[in-house]
Write a structure and sequence with these properties.
single chain; alpha/beta; five-stranded mixed beta sheet; three-stranded antiparallel beta sheet; 51% helix; globular
Length: 473
């Protein structure tokens, strides 16, 4: 237990000599907090707000997308040559635990829970993260650090600057932890601690079982894939520079197009490098190909009406527990003349094995593995397109049932764009998590203030009685 969270000396029996050292230490800690000037207290609480909000947002953005965070961890391990030593169950567990730790740490900072311990943990975390981003900025093993999941993309340089600022904030909190104003008393902090940890772990479990409740990727519900692939008129184009290696009289030199030599020089080789990046559309790597190599992307995306896309990165590791539901949806699609494609990056052997164990009769087409992971966080998962627009996404754990497919899609709720909005989802998160914490804080502060009022009232009454007694004597 932390000294600043222990009962004050006033709550101990004055004659208890054994308690005196603790009382003195606690009083000294309280005096140090009070001795901080208002400017230092203001700086401390501003650092607390910046660090806490960043941790909460960053941790939550990763917690709602455990698979995306796992993919990023695998990218880091791959850059270090360690991916082969880290099984998927380990990287997924680390994904969930690291996200939960960061989110919980942010909440504890904002509510000043266990101030000394939390400030030390925050500083240790930021030291580790800053060292990693120094390496990332220098070696450039990944293009995006993944600090905020898919919600916000930062360059490696921007990430380093961000972490240096947060490291400074963490140092301030570590130096003056008692400068953080505490909203919840020690006796009730266990409620906030357990509630926070339980909430974020259940959130990750729910998003693993279903799909992320917030989808920041370019293939979110409502996204039109063809439009996402378009390059706007006037958008900056990539620029390239070609260098030619020429030889004359045994001497080799490099030339550009501007100073290309005469015909007396013999061509040896040429090199083309990109000198300036151009506009990259949100969707730039989506393609559907037959095993023979024919591209049918335009055919699928330009079709009017509905299209089912079953997505599986690798069928060899796909969950086959719900293959019966997939087969029922395929049969429904056949009855309604709706195209049904399975997009995968699997080998021919994996596809054959899937057909053998599930009895699948739908056609299989090839798509890039990274693209499939980006489209949906489920293996397998199901998309419903309408005129090239994604209107529904399902994990294999909550596929539409036969009762939901008893009519034409245009007459069914699942054939329409869902009414759920981002604002509605944010409101639900606030009501489920932040509102209970705020109510706990208000109740705690009300009780603490009432205790102060009662104590002052009692002291005034005692003084009044003593004064009256003295006057009577």
């Amino acid at each position: 237990m932390l000294q600043e969270d222990k009962p004050t000396a006033q709550t101990h029996v004055q004659g208890n000599d054994a308690a005196q050292p603790k009382q003195t230490s606690t009083a000294r800690s309280s005096r140090r907090a009070l001795e901080l000037g208002w400017g230092m207290r203001l700086v401390t609480n501003l650092c607390r707000l910046l660090l806490g909000v960043t941790f909460v947002f960053s941790g939550y953005a990763k917690a709602i997308d455990p698979l995306g965070t796992q993919y990023k961890l695998q990218d880091y391990l791959g850059a270090l040559g360690l991916q082969a030593y880290a099984p998927d169950v380990l990287t997924l567990s680390l994904s969930v635990l690291l996200s939960a730790f960061e989110f919980a740490l942010g909440i504890f900072i904002l509510f000043a829970i266990r101030r000394r311990l939390v400030s030390k943990l925050a500083l240790a975390l930021m030291v580790c993260m800053t060292l990693i981003t120094v390496w990332v900025a220098a070696a450039n093993p990944v293009s995006d650090c993944g600090c905020f999941g898919d919600a916000i993309k930062l360059t490696n340089g921007q990430t380093l600057v961000k972490n240096l600022v947060l490291l400074l904030c963490a140092f301030v909190l570590w130096k003056w932890p008692l400068g953080m104003y505490r909203f919840i008393s020690r006796s009730n902090q266990w409620i906030a601690i357990n509630f926070t940890i339980l909430f974020i772990l259940l959130t990750s479990a729910y998003c693993l079982y279903r799909l992320p409740i917030f989808d920041f990727r370019p293939y979110h519900v409502g996204a039109n894939i063809p439009k996402g692939m378009e390059i706007p008129a006037g958008a900056p184009q990539p620029q390239f520079e070609t260098t030619f290696v020429m030889e004359k009289n045994g001497v080799r030199k490099e030339f550009s197009l501007e100073n290309y030599p005469d015909s007396t020089w013999q061509f040896i080789d040429s090199k083309t490098v990109q000198t300036k990046a151009g506009y990259v559309p949100p969707i730039h790597d989506f393609s559907i190909q037959r095993a023979e190599g024919d591209d049918i992307t335009e055919e699928v995306l330009s079709r009017k009406g509905y299209t089912f896309l079953l997505i599986s990165t690798h069928l060899g590791v796909a969950d086959d527990s719900n293959f019966g539901d997939i087969d029922q949806i395929y049969e429904y699609a056949q009855q309604e003349n709706i195209p049904f494609y399975c997009l995968t990056a699997s080998t021919e052997k994996e596809i054959q094995h899937w057909e053998d164990i599930t009895g699948a009769e739908y056609p299989f087409y090839l798509t890039d593995e990274t693209t499939l992971k980006t489209i949906i966080r489920s293996n397998p998962g199901l998309l419903l397109l309408k005129n090239g627009t994604i209107i529904r996404k399902w994990s294999h754990n909550n596929l539409p049932s036969s009762e939901e497919l008893k009519d034409r899609l245009d007459r069914l709720p699942i054939g329409q764009m869902p009414e759920d909005s981002v604002a509605k989802t944010i409101t639900q998160v606030v009501l489920w998590f932040f509102l209970p914490l705020i109510l706990l804080t208000l109740a705690d502060r009300t009780w603490a203030w009432s205790q102060v009022v009662r104590r002052k009232t009692r002291l005034l009454r005692i003084r009044k009685e003593r004064r009256s007694k003295a006057e009577n004597e």
